[in-house]
Task: inverse folding
């Protein structure tokens, strides 16, 4: 089922809230009006009963009462909804006024001495079910005769009034709700306009148009934050795409060179008959080129695997001193060939993946070997602090100009391309070091002085290591 749009949800919420408020306020007003009307009628009935009792008390006899009955009716009850009946002790009707003709029930009469109160009123209904309120009181004439006075009021007109009031309120409520639906829909649509324009902008952004950004204009602050976050995400994606594109270009270039070399040397060799020594030399150089291609491919695969968030490290506790000694030994052959010494200093323990650790330090050492002048010494130094284990690979040499230091860890970056485009260089060694350090939650840094010392430092965070 398609979920409801935001504007429909907001409109519905607004309308429900408005309806609840309307109904609540309308109901309270209705109740207040109803109570006021009924309270007024009750007061009138009580006052009439009191007045009639006093009036009766001033009359001498039943005959006198009969003579004054018109005065009583006219002066006390001017409303056709009111009714009055006076009966004597034997139950004979002395005065009867009931223009509406509703049934009059004689109630248990309030005794002569007792004050008449609204709580003494009774209710009953006529044959149509319409309510009637009334009460009976005892009155005493001067000659001591008792009479029962009943006053009542039909509430039929009040019911009709309240019914009209309810119907008017319902119609106004309906009109109010229709207005609320229309207005809230328009307002919500207007408020969400910037969101729609963001969606339109976003729909035009593809891999080929990643430079485009979402425009915000005078949108509300919340949308500013959202579009800001989305634009930041586009910045990162654009950077990522640019790096992938650059990587592809560099990879193609790096594979084209050795394959071009292979093809060129083979073509030249095939142009004339060669001696077997020449063929041997050719095959030797072919193997070197093939090695370079396979090293590039192996490095690219490693970097791709390391980029995967699922990459699992096999961490163990490593004695850094021992590991550095082993690496120095491993590179001993190449070092003595180049007339370079390797020395190891310091001790530390690191929680890291053994193979990756060796690969990172090995890459730094192989670089150092390539750039250390004959007779000089490479230092592998380990240092342990509370926060991190640092492993530095230092070598004297020409050094690396400062403007290159930042980019050294980019894939395929070489300071001097012409010099390094040899069979030995893929330009991926330092990017592998960087990937290894990121996998360990650490980092790598480079410092270099021209005609001085070049130092690459690996930082393994201690706390991070303990957590894993
Ligand atoms: N110790 C160093 N002294 C001077 N320059 C260095 C040193 N280490 C690295 N570089 C420079 O950094 C560049 C990048 O090194 P990186 O290890 O990534 O690639 P590479 O050594 O050229 O190739 P590979 O590591 O695959 O053999 C090198 O080409 C070199 O110019
Ligand atoms: Mg290298």
Result:
């Amino acid at each position: 089922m398609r979920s409801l749009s935001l504007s429909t949800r907001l409109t519905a919420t607004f309308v429900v809230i408005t309806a609840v408020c309307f109904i609540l306020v309308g109901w309270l007003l209705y109740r207040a009006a109803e109570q006021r009307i009924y309270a007024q009628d009750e007061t009138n009935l009580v006052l009439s009963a009191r007045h009639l009792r006093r009036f009766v008390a001033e009359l001498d006899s039943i005959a006198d009462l009969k003579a004054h009955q018109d005065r009583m009716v006219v002066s006390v009850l001017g409303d056709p909804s009111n009714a009055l009946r006076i009966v004597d002790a034997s139950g004979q009707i002395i005065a009867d006024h009931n223009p509406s003709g509703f049934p009059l029930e004689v109630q248990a009469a309030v005794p002569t001495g007792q004050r008449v109160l609204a709580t003494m009123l009774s209710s009953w209904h006529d044959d149509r079910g319409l309510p009637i309120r009334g009460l009976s009181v005892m009155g005493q004439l001067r000659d001591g005769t008792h009479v029962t006075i009943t006053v009542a009021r039909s509430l039929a007109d009040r019911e009709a009034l309240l019914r009209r009031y309810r119907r008017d309120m319902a119609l106004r409520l309906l009109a109010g709700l229709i207005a609320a639906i229309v207005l809230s829909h328009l307002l919500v649509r207007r408020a969400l306009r910037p969101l729609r324009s963001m969606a339109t902008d976003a729909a035009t952004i593809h891999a080929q148009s990643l430079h485009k950004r979402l425009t915000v204009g005078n949108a509300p602050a919340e949308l500013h934050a959202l579009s800001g976050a989305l634009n930041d995400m586009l910045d990162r994606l654009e950077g990522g795409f640019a790096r992938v594109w650059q990587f592809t270009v560099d990879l193609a270039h790096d594979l084209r060179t050795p394959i071009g070399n292979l093809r060129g040397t083979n073509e030249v060799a095939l142009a004339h008959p060669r001696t077997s020594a020449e063929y041997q030399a050719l095959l030797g150089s072919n193997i070197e080129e093939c090695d370079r291609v396979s090293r590039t491919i192996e490095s690219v695969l490693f970097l791709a695997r390391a980029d995967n968030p699922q990459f699992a490290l096999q961490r163990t506790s490593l004695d850094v001193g021992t590991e550095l000694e082993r690496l120095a030994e491993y590179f001993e052959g190449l070092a003595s060939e180049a007339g370079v010494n390797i020395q190891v200093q310091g001790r530390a323990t690191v929680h890291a993946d053994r193979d990756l650790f060796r690969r990172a330090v090995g890459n730094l050492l192989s670089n150092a070997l390539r750039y250390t002048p004959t007779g000089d010494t490479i230092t592998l130094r380990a240092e342990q602090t509370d926060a991190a284990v640092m492993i530095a690979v230092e070598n004297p040499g020409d050094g690396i100009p400062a403007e290159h230091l930042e980019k050294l860890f980019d894939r395929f970056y070489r300071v001097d391309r012409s010099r390094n485009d040899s069979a030995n260089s893929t330009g991926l060694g330092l990017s592998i070091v960087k990937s290894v350090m990121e996998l360990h939650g650490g980092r790598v840094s480079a410092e270099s002085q021209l005609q001085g010392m070049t130092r690459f430092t690996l930082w393994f965070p201690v706390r991070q290591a303990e957590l894993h």
User: Anything to note?
Assistant: The longest strand covers residues 131-140. Residues 22 and 123 are 32 Å apart (CA to CA). The radius of gyration is 52 Å.
